[in-house]
Amino acid sequence: MQILNAVRGSRIPPVVALHANGLTTRPANEMQGTRRFFQQGDEIFAEGEPYTAFYKVVSGTVRVGKLLIDGRRQIDAFHFPGDVFGLESSDRHRFTSEAVDDVEVIAYRRSTFATIVRENPAFGEQLMSSMVTNLDRAHDHMVLLGRKTAVERMASFLLDLARRTSRSDRVELSMQRTDIADYLGLTIETVSRLLTQLARDGLIRLTKAGRTIVLADKAGLQTLRS
Amino acid sequence: MQILNAVRGSRIPPVVALHANGLTTRPANEMQGTRRFFQQGDEIFAEGEPYTAFYKVVSGTVRVGKLLIDGRRQIDAFHFPGDVFGLESSDRHRFTSEAVDDVEVIAYRRSTFATIVRENPAFGEQLMSSMVTNLDRAHDHMVLLGRKTAVERMASFLLDLARRTSRSDRVELSMQRTDIADYLGLTIETVSRLLTQLARDGLIRLTKAGRTIVLADKAGLQTLRS
DNA sequence: CGAGTTTTTGAAGGACATCAACGTCTGTGG
DNA sequence: CCACAGACGTTGATGTCCTTCAAAAACTCG
Questions:
Q1: Is B2 a residue whose pLDDT tops 80?
Q2: Domain spans of chain B?
Q3: What's the Cα-to-Cα distance from A219 to each of A22, A65, A223, B137, rounded to whole Å?
């Protein structure tokens, strides 16, 4: 909706190394990109918009998803630091991406994959790997949406979140209930009920407006996850 | 389950062209692969199996998906001629793939993406594009599973199937009801009821054991699809 | 402190699942 | 060619998990 308050991107000076053969090159696994900042709720790009760049998260949480005409929404994935999103094969974006909280990304100018690989094979390899990882996660998420019960979805979500964003058993929810519900294919009411139920059963502990969750019984959650 | 009756792969002789510069090379967009055949129901590879090859469908239909311990199954995607599947970033397959009917594929030996790109950039580009297409479809499928009603799922399925496999309004279902149900996140009973309901409403016509469907009112289905 | 937003909790309803039985198709052997 | 068995598909009756509708509670931020 609002793409307005996105801070104008500032160019990152490309790090250049001088090779023995006299050719200039960039360090492996990196490529010139533009650092950009988005505030909570900002749209990074919208479904249908021309595809001009793809992104890597530096800090914060990004949600990507789709909207049906009547307002129903599905969040396909959350992306955390290190994750790549927004790569397309057509020339329009096929989904929307927004900042869940304050977000910093590196934007890479759209270019054919061949070009990327020619200029920086290691970066190309990294991108391909990112795509396969994203596809892996999508597969897991389809099982969750198609075949898991509400509790199983919530247990899966909490454990995944802990694995991806936390080194401890404490999870900071950067997203609110609406996002969780739209990610899990549930309603906010159900999400809320599930969390209080899990807390009542001693599997988790809720603190500070339910934005921090301690996974008190990971093994128990693992059982519920299916 | 049974990987037994897979016909032993027969090597395809690599087509070699002599370039002006005297180097031998393969034609663009192709790479050496092994032709393999699978019968209806055969497993092509299983979740957890070592990853040794990825595949392109030549003929027939392939289903890829996952199984939960208690037998619940989710089919993530159907793959038709031209589609690539089974590419992984880890060294084990993350999902299972099986032949829906009699299937012919080209198996490509696992290799790093860098190698593929070095040896045949055009093929690498094609692979990247396939991955992005698969991810696109996964996104659509997540919306379907997470937010669409049963009728909407069925309408979406029929229209997609027609677009991908048929040039007319007649769709041949290569898969049986169980597969459709596990793809749409429903039960076979619901799938059956939906089809008869759509037929009663004049949107489709069922023939020959319900394996051939005529999309009598595509516009109507489009409305239902959401 | 107070207005608006987000989250929680409760009561009632509905869409799809489950359980059960019947119908239909396919292929095999008499 | 027909009979039969087993697999696959359809139809019906009932149940349940999650949604929907409603309102209160808790939190945020000026």
A1: no
A2: 2-138, 148-225
A3: 56, 31, 6, 34
